[in-house]
Amino acid sequence: MFNHGKHKRSFTYVDDIVEGVIRTLDQPATANSEWEGMASDPATSNAQYRIFNIGSERPVELLRYIEVLAHRLGKKAAMEMLPLQAGDVPDTEADLSVLIESVGYRPIVWVEEGMRNFVRWYRDHYQVVET
User: Fold this and answer.
1) Predicted local confidence at residue 32, as pLDDT
2) What global pTM score does this model have?
3) Is residue 131 part of a domain?
4) What is the per-residue pLDDT across 63-92, written as a single tens digit (0 to 9) for each?
5) Does residue 30 lie in a domain region?
């Protein structure tokens, strides 16, 4: 595990992403009629599109994420700790300000709940028997 598992990421449950996408579909983007290339707001264009960041506002350390998954699986994770990879960043965090302002939505599922749901779905879908 690079950076000895100390990375923080905005892990986002799939249902939260789907809900965010559905809500954005209800409010189609409009073109910026005053858009003039490089001199304009980079978040707009003369085309009808909009880009939203749909992620969790609660970054989780990778070690915690693996800990939650291992707990849900009833297994111990085998890990090889490595230093930070060249070019990687230790922490990222989703900025939801545009999503919240535009469609009034923010993801709500915590990692613990999302992992519980995912493991339950996986076991049902692939008919995996708990050991």
Assistant:
1) 79
2) 0.81
3) no
4) 999 999 999 999 999 999 999 999 999 999
5) yes
Question: Tell me: the pLDDT tens digits for 18-57?
Answer: 999 999 998 888 887 888 877 777 777 777 778 889 999 9
CATH of the domain at 91: 3.40.50.720
Amino acid in position 84 = L
Burial of 11 from C-beta contacts in 10 A (0-12 / 13-18 / 19+) = buried
C-alpha distance from residue 125 to each of 111, 117, 119, 128 (Å):
20, 12, 10, 8
Number of domains forming the structure of the chain: 1
Cα distance between residue 57 and residue 72, in whole Å: 23
Is residue 130 in a domain?
no
Domain extent, residue 96, equals 2-125
Tell me if 96 sits within 8 A of 53, measured CB to CB. Answer: yes
Q: What is the DSSP track for 15-79?
A: HHHHHHHHHHHTS-----TT--GGGS-TT--SSS--------SS-EEHHHHHHHHHHHHT-PPP-
Alpha carbon distances (Å) from 97 to 30, 40, 41, 93, 100: 18, 20, 16, 12, 5
- Cross-strand bridge partners of residue 53: none
In a domain, residue 59? The reply is: yes
